[in-house]
Specification:
Structural class: alpha+beta
CATH superfamily of the largest domain: Nucleoside Triphosphate Pyrophosphohydrolase
Largest sheet: 7 strands, mixed
Distance between the termini: 41 Å
CATH class of the largest domain: Alpha Beta
Number of helices: 7
Helix content: 10-25%
Number of domains: 2
Radius of gyration: 21 Å
Order of helices and strands: EEEEHEEEHEHHEEEEHEEEHH
Strand content: 35-45%
CATH topology of the largest domain: Nucleoside Triphosphate Pyrophosphohydrolase
Number of strands: 15
Length: 343
């Protein structure tokens, strides 16, 4: 079975009464009738923050701004009729409205280009561009399919808990996670996945700002022959098919630094596009990299050492005090996590 990958960005938007905004998967989506947070699959090279803002506008007609970062989770579904195992990395943000479209004190929802919302009940059919395919605007073969959502509603925590929810939504809202079964034979055919483009790749990776009890930071040096060779980097790397981001990071921490750590919190998202990267076939590829950064603690540090097989992308690993960081040549990801200058 072919393994395919996509990355999506979703948002938790609450009103003044503490209700959360949810959308229902349409008959042409992966799980018809199941509810989830509004959002979207990312377009090629699109930053996740831009993706969640666009997704909210397309699925609910609401203009929002990103206010925080909540979680990064992954799930895998099998599409046997297409011979595809589809892995989706989902980044969840908190968002706040930037317009007057949320319900007022009287509970009356304002109108939006993609359809209004009922203040209670099960919502209003989404109109306009709800779930609009990314198409030529984005060029992303794994973006949202046509008709991704058909209803939207505000739900109290109790109401949300009674709805069938996609697991990533339940987890993000702190509700019990219940497996969702694929739908019975469909009255409406599923929109098929387009073929993978030969000249594009998406890579999802998890990295850690890893510290020990005395405040030292663990960094790894990029090996010769890899982009950024010689620069010091955060431990971490690309996650495997079906692997959760935090679990992938802890695996990489052992391979690249010989350390056992514990993930404390998700602190940042980094987006990178390299339209002329050299791919594994020896020809240029348009790479889109999405990286999440966690804060990680190693309670019982040991001497840092690279344990992955020879020929890996990591040449060395070492602990550094905060004062020593200033004299190092570091990657953009290290600069983002530590406030130091890259290069």
């Amino acid at each position: 079975m072919e393994q395919r990958r996509r990355v999506g960005a979703y948002g938790i938007c609450r009103d003044g009464a503490g209700r959360v905004l949810l959308v229902r998967e349409s008959a042409r989506a992966d799980f018809p009738g199941v509810w989830r947070l509004p959002g979207s699959g990312l377009a090629h090279a699109e930053h996740p923050e831009a993706g969640v803002v666009r997704g909210f506008a397309e699925e609910t007609g609401r203009a929002v701004t990103v206010t925080g970062l909540v979680a990064a989770v992954a799930d895998v579904i099998s599409l046997p009729q297409e011979g595809v195992s589809l892995h989706t990395d989902r980044i969840v943000f908190t968002v706040a409205p930037t317009d007057a479209s949320l319900p007022d004190e009287a509970g009356r929802a304002g109108s939006g280009e993609a359809g209004g919302l009922l203040p209670g009940g099960f919502g209003d059919p989404l109109r306009g561009r709800a779930g609009d395919p990314l198409g030529d605007r984005a060029g992303d073969p794994l973006g949202d399919r046509a008709g991704g959502a058909d209803l939207a509603r505000w739900a109290t925590p109790e109401e949300a808990a009674a709805l069938p929810l996609l697991p990533f939504t339940a987890e993000a809202l702190g509700l019990p996670v219940v497996p969702v079964r694929p739908a019975a034979p469909r009255a409406v055919p599923r929109a098929p996945l387009p073929p993978s483009p030969a000249d594009r790749r998406v890579r999802f990776a998890a990295y850690g700002l890893v510290t020990d009890p005395v405040g030292r930071v663990l960094l790894t040096k990029i090996a010769e022959g890899y982009p950024g060779a010689g620069l010091w980097h955060l431990p971490g790397g690309g996650t495997d098919h079906g692997e959760q981001p935090a679990a992938g990071l802890l695996r990489e921490l052992v391979e690249e630094g010989g350390q056992l750590g514990r993930v404390l919190e998700l602190i940042a998202v980094h987006n990178l596009r390299n339209p002329a990267a050299l791919g594994p076939e020896g020809r240029p590829l348009d790479w889109h990299g999405v990286r999440v950064i966690y804060r990680v603690r190693v309670d019982e540090p040991t001497e840092a050492r690279v344990t992955e097989l020879a020929g890996g992308s990591t040449a060395d690993a070492a602990w550094f005090t905060p004062e020593q960081l200033g004299g190092l040549r570091v990657t953009e990801v290290v600069a983002l996590a530590t406030g130091r200058r890259a290069g």
